């Protein structure tokens, strides 16, 4: 570890929300050796395949290393930073003057550092006056955010990773943790081996995660709410409710229970609604009822749904009704997808949030306005991701700044997104690689952003733990951090005094101070104890969980004794709206589910550089049950066309008996920039949860045919 190697820099993995600590030891050739950080509480030295291969992904071959600008309809050409920043500032100024603040939007990323995210939100929401600031975290965590806020009054993950070590039952819902949160999954498996922790996997698709399960529930698509409503009824009927906790700290059990009982009155009805065997439902319910130390982890199978928020609340209801929250080995646990989805939420990186977990109520807007001394504070929510790009397509949004994400691949109806980008008067892209699908959509200005290894700041992982991401590589001469570019544009617009930061520590201190500003325990996110951090202390900041209020009180867990962030400090059990499972269409008889594979990350701009990672699964594919493939004349390795109302892709057929009949699975990673075929974002519909706005990427009606 760091003590053994004085040349090693302690930093954080740039991929998933586990947030593993790393030791990076630079070499003379511009690369670095990467190892796990034995003292980081997220991973204690362990790394997955992606983290372990990070050293293979360092290099400048694919990097964008100088600003680029387009003149008229001509191609992008290199320019100075001053010229590029002037163009951005001029474009924003003229858009404001001609069309008003709502014509400006920012689309950010869970890959950004908290300091970058803070700077973008401050500029947009406080100084340009637009709340059209959303992020690719909308595709990842928005339903969990909305569910948390409905139940707890705040976007709070109540527990910690160490609860996985202490649990006797771990329920994984809509989560292929073995591939998507591998280090955390090994921790669960270790608990199972060491102390007999039972693992229940609830997923329509049989994945690698099921290999460690004591019980696998291959639930019908979209019926998670029914299962957890059935569990709530079962708990009530068998004495499983913690009446004292419910009476002291919650509201709404009777209504939630009545609605659940109407929906699924018993185990038989639950089995029928979910397509599960009655004996399996009964076993799961009995295990949950009898196991006090239960943790329910959930991820994209829950969140990426047209009913994602209800699914989240159906899970939270069961933990609130049993008082299993905020105690060792107990609690609901949202597994964050991206490395800094949590940090983005902390600074208001969603269109329906302000900084420090504040919303858009008039007092909150006023509070942030006064703290920032903001001249043009946005007073109401902006457009969420899908709606934002629809507004761009209609010509209502004229200026867009995309930072650290690739919406032309990853958003639903990605072809429509591509077309929309072509309508902008000002399209600014902050990126660190030369070629990706969004960069090919004719941005007017491209700003070369610092990459992992060069960036300096903080990220927050799934357990509310803030870790430093420290630089250990020399930044190419033409490359700058995102916060710096934002501050330079702000200065050009006349807001220099409010953006006079000279280093990330300046931004972090301001962010920490805002979290405590007129807080007094009314908001969950409070790190004001860090507001006075010196530069040296910021540099050596150890991984630490929030809340960290100035008066003390840091804790690994919340809500064991209530203290929710609703006006009456009670949690709410929520009545889920009736939600029909997704239906196929006669002309599109399959449901297409999209997701990750073990060894790639997002659109492969980094993981694709590692030969080791690229050897795992080498080509875009569609997984299909062999009994669905055979009647279509499709055999293993054949090329097939998957088509939806929105697009088509050519994919290699992989027979998979773990794939539910009538469904398909295709990975999200391939794009026009890295393959000649196989871009699935273009196929995904834009159905979304009405509360969270999160797109349903798991159930697009589709056809499958021989290519
Ligand atoms: Fe990185 Fe996630 Fe793997 Fe940890 S589990 S090494 S954070 S990708």
Instruction: Give the number of domains.
Output: 4
β-strand percent reads 15-25%
Q: Compute the number of strand runs.
A: 26
The CATH topology name of the largest domain reads Rossmann fold
Main sheet properties? 7 strands, mixed
Q: Which spans have pLDDT < 50 for at least 5 consecutive residues?
A: none
The CATH architecture of the largest domain would be 3-Layer(aba) Sandwich
Cα separation of the termini: 52 Å
Helix amount: 25-40%
Which hetero compounds are present in the coordinates?
A: iron/sulfur cluster
Structural class: alpha/beta
Cofactor: Mo-bis(molybdopterin guanine dinucleotide); [4Fe-4S] cluster
Protein name: Assimilatory nitrate reductase (NADH) alpha subunit apoprotein
Keywords: 4Fe-4S, Iron, Iron-sulfur, Metal-binding, Molybdenum, Nitrate assimilation, Oxidoreductase
GO molecular function: 4 iron, 4 sulfur cluster binding; metal ion binding; molybdopterin cofactor binding; oxidoreductase activity
